[in-house]
Amino acid sequence: MIGLTATPKDEIDKNTYEIFELENGVPTFGYDLAQSVKDGYLVDYVSVESKLKFIEQGIVYDELSEEDKRAYEETFEDEHGDLPDSIGSSALNTWIFNEDTIKQVLNILMTKGIKIDYGQKLGKTIIFAKNHDHAEKILEVFNKEYPRLPDYAKVIDNYMNYAQSAIDEFSDPKKMPQIAISVDML
Length: 186
Hints:
The protein is of the alpha/beta class. The protein is built from 8 helices and 7 strands; from the N terminus they run αααβαβααβββαβαβ. It has a 3-stranded parallel beta sheet, sandwiched between helices. α6 (99-112) crosses α7 (132-145). The radius of gyration is 20 Å and the shape is globular.
């Protein structure tokens, strides 16, 4: 039996070390990013940092405009009429997809992302979404913001019938899409 993974885990419910009777955190063999870059199999990543308020801090009711407070009340008031004072960024990022935040992140990607073809085209890019609905929302916002780029972005996740052929197309530098929006697959 052989096990290959890019992300070994030592969690209770999904422990890849335990499956192969290995000590947690000690694989039989490890091939790290730095070595794979040096060997020419991968390229190093480039990080573009951005600070967006909702992603960093969550939502605080008292800091909202009157219009946003009404929307907050309509969205978050429970069946007993209770309203949370705030929603932390981790909870917010799990189940709310703020269209403006998605627009801002896509703008950063499209303006600061690594370009190819003499700066004419964004290099192959993977966006990791929280879940399928989040991936679909990202694609919807992308298509609204960049209508001149049909087929430029595509959701590739386990909801697809032909995921492997979509991955193969994405892997081909001559074929679209340039952006794969993925959930737990790539």
